[in-house]
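Hi F.,

I've been meaning to write this up properly since the lab meeting, where we talked about keeping a consistent format for the predictions we share between groups. The idea is simple: the sequence comes first, exactly as it goes in, then the structure tokens exactly as they come out, then a line or two of notes. No screenshots and no reformatting. I'm using this chain as the first example so we have something concrete to point to.
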Amino acid sequence: MRTVYLTFHVYLAFVTKSFQKRMQYRVANLAGLTTNFFFLLVHIFVYTAFYKVSTEPQPLTLNEVITYFVLCQVFFMLMPLWGARSEVTNAIKDGSVALQLTKPVDFHAYWFSDECGRACYYLFMRGLPTFLISIIFFTVALPTQPMTLVAFAVSMTLATFMSAAITIAIFSSAFWTLDTTGISGLSYSIITLFSGMLVPIALWPEWLAHIAAWLPFGGLIDIPFSIYLGKITGIDAWVAIGKQMIWVVFFVGLGRILLRRGFSRLVIQGG
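Output, unedited:
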């Protein structure tokens, strides 16, 4: 039991260090806040115009769409691969991974903790201010049921874990390619589309939404936001959360397999 306790505190320290490392870039964070709010305005203006000319009933009201995109900007930096974060790739490419492998920690868990620390930083330092500012200027829907907030918090936590797991799995391809620019760019485009980040899946054609339902990426955006808006409730919400858990386990396992295979063929050059 003491071993588990100490292990938990080791990786919690990695989460804390990752958070503190990003605290150094306060000006960049302020610029990011401005950018987030600008793109939020763009989305709101576009959808407001769309709803004004629309004559058909829509699955989401305009207020719900505005709330949806407020949440998108709040949790935007929690999406996997944003900005092509390539700490894993750089460590593999420049050989510093060899030094990290000498540490008495699990490499996958170490990078997973680093990603979680990054997510916590962007949630509190960028996401929370964006949400508070949006409440002032727009009509943002707030859940009224405590269980809705609980389910949303659980779902969003799993979405963060899935984001970290996907990021590590994709950047682990650096063991074979050394440059992950292509695969990360392609992956980010697919993930952004099928997560519902660009257009809420509720507004998609039925056949395309059916495809998205079979993919894991809705667990990053669409599932937690649908729970927040009350579109998925009761037992259906917990079934959706269970689906998220399955995909988190899958991507964590995939990342560990890729790292293990990559280490077996790793060659460090230089000296």
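Notes:
The longest helix spans residues 107-137.
The mean pLDDT is 84.

If this format works for you, I'll send the rest the same way.

G.
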